[in-house]
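I have been asked to look over a protein record a colleague put together. What it holds is a sequence and that sequence's fold in C-alpha cell form. Please read both lines and tell me whether the C-alpha cells look consistent with the sequence. I do not need a full report, just your reasoning and any doubts. This is what I was given:
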Amino acid sequence: MKVDKIDDIELYQEAFSIQEIGNKAVKEALKENQEKNIPSVFSKDGKLFYKLPNGEITQKSPFPSK
C-alpha cells in the first residue's frame, strides 16, 4: 500500500502530542496496577502475556476463569 507523504508540520506535532498523552496514560495504568497487585496484560504477535505484580511474565492467565 502506498502512503502519501504529509508535509503539514502541525499535523505531526498534534500526532506527537496525542502519542505522548497515550504513553503517559499507559505508564500511569501500569504503575497503578502494580500498586494494587493487579497483573498487567500485554499482547505481542497475537499472543497474550501477563506481567504479575512480582515482575514475572507468563502466558498463563492469573485471572480466575468463569
Notes: The first strand starts at residue 40 and ends at 44.
